[in-house]
Design brief:
Blueprint lengths: L19 H13 L4 E6 L5 E3 L2 E2 L6 H7 L7 E4 L8 E5 L4 H7 L4 H7 L5 E4 L3 H9 L4 E3 L6 H15 L11 E3 L2 H9 L3 H24 L6 H14 L4 E2 L4 E4 L20 E6 L1 E3 L2 E2 L2 E6 L6 H19 L9 H16 L7 H7 L25 E2 L2 E2 L7 E4 L2 E4 L13 E4 L2 E5 L4 E3 L8 H9 L4
Helix pairs in contact: 5-6, 8-9, 8-13, 10-11, 11-12
């Protein structure tokens, strides 16, 4: 067995997909909002999986957003007005012997030449250098609490500067959460980001199509998962955006099911929630389809309600609509549909007001999507739902889950769990469904499943 070390992620440093100038503009935008401060962004630490094996490394999203630097053991520092350069990157130096085992490193020269750092220093020297960067700065822009070990280092550096007060050196007197600046920037996607998200959606849609074509009774859920992972990696995805959900039958009624180890039975439905990540940007797609390729009566009835709810919600994704309007539209259609099936009885408006539908639809209709699958950005501004703006990307994912034993529900509806999820970009003209290449109409799914996987 060959051991995979986390620093292998450096294999991507020579193949950056976006121009370094793009990240320089982002850093400038941050510094313009900082005033007399210094911003400090550590990347994510390496996480051990077991003994001497680590989880495959992925950088911190905020750090990567501003640096595009993929290696561990790195800290970015932004110092507006610094004469010798405003962007400093602490990172690992080149080490020929370690690189034989762990993969290439960018090193200090690579940090400057390939990632646009004005200055680069060895990460091992950070204790000697960083306190000096804090001297006579009014504020520290830093996201406290994300990496507790680094929080301790930062406070030690600040206290070191405070200890120089008798020498006329001033320490920062205020800590400002850097999330507020960076996350507002990340919420509105630029054309370069949208291009990556479209690619992630395209690769993910191809994986869902492949899974539909490969699926048949008697397969194991993990066999279908393997089809997804093959297509992701074939399409150039370094990571899955999240662990895939592949749940057949009753497992589709478990929202975050991830065992993926049950047999797929003839007559059951299969719910797949899976998305690829491309250069840090996620796709998030859910499709539900019959294991044998043919919808039964009850399955089709519930599916058509969920699909109608999704289409109604997508119609509300446009500039000027507020965040909750797609959810409200989906709830109206789902609740009316449950009444039409006889699962809910009585007044639809009353069921909505009392939340009776939540027995069968217990989550919200979407979330922001970007570098994180549940991406950053406020959903409310003050007490009001946020209005949608061009460049925002969100998921639209209504569902119905009728678990076995549901009280006062005829058994013929039991174990039907359906979710349909797409990635939707808000445009000036309306919206664009980035994941549209994944079939979701009943006839499209059935036609595709008649074909054999290539």
């Amino acid at each position: 067995m060959s051991i995979r070390f986390a620093p292998e992620s450096a294999r991507f440093w020579h193949n950056a997909r976006m121009d370094p100038k793009f990240f320089a503009k982002r850093r400038q935008e941050v510094m313009q909002q900082m005033g007399g401060g210094v911003a400090i962004l550590p990347t994510a630490p390496v996480r051990p999986r077991n003994r001497d094996v680590h989880y495959l490394y992925r950088p911190d999203s905020d750090f990567y957003y501003l640096t595009h630097f993929p290696e561990p053991e790195a800290v970015a520092v932004l110092v507006p007005g610094r004469a010798h350069g405003e962007y400093i990157l602490f990172c690992r130096d080149r080490h020929p012997e370690k690189e034989i085992w762990e993969g290439r490193r960018a090193g200090l020269d690579g940090a400057r030449e390939h990632y646009g750092a004005d200055d680069a220093f060895p990460i091992d020297d950070i204790d000697e250098i960083l306190p000096g960067l804090l001297e006579n700065r009014e504020k520290v822009f830093y996201s406290m609490g994300r990496y507790p070990d680094f929080d301790t280092h930062l406070m030690n550096w600040v206290n070191e500067v405070r200890g120089k007060a008798r020498n006329g050196v001033n320490a920062p007197g205020e800590f400002v959460d850097l999330h507020h600046i960076v996350h507002e920037m990340r919420l509105i996607k630029r054309p370069e980001e949208i291009k990556l998200m479209k690619r992630a959606a395209k690769v993910s849609a191809a994986a869902h199509r492949r899974a539909m074509q490969a699926c048949k009774p008697g397969m194991m859920e993990y066999e279908v998962e393997a089809e997804l992972l093959y297509e992701f990696r074939k399409g150039g995805s370094e990571y899955t955006a999240y662990p895939p959900i592949v749940g057949g039958g009753a497992n589709a009624c478990v929202l975050h099911y991830n065992e993926n180890n049950a047999e797929l039975k003839n007559g059951d439905m299969l719910l797949i929630d899976a998305g690829a990540e491309i250069d840090g940007y996620a796709a998030d797609i859910t499709r539900t389809f019959p294991v044998n390729g043919k919808f039964k009566g009850e399955q089709k009835a519930v599916y058509e309600i969920v699909l109608a709810a999704q289409l109604a919600a997508i119609e509300q994704v446009r500039v000027g609509k507020h965040w909750n309007e797609p959810h409200e539209a989906a709830v109206r259609v789902l609740t009316q549909g449950l009444k039409d099936l006889g699962i809910l009885k009585g007044d639809v408006a009353g069921h909505i007001e009392q939340g009776d539908y939540k027995r069968f639809y217990m989550h919200r209709t979407g979330h922001w999507l970007g570098m994180d699958v549940h991406d950053v950005g406020d959903y409310k501004l003050g007490e009001a739902w946020r209005e949608l703006e061009a460049g925002m990307v969100l998921t639209v994912e209504p569902g119905l889950y009728i678990a076995e034993g549901s009280k006062d529900v005829d058994a013929r509806w039991w174990n039907i769990g359906i979710r349909i999820e797409d990635d939707v970009l808000v445009t000036r003209e309306g919206n664009e469904v980035l994941s549209r290449e994944a079939p979701k109409a009943v006839d499209e799914i059935e036609a595709l499943m008649k074909e054999k996987s290539g």
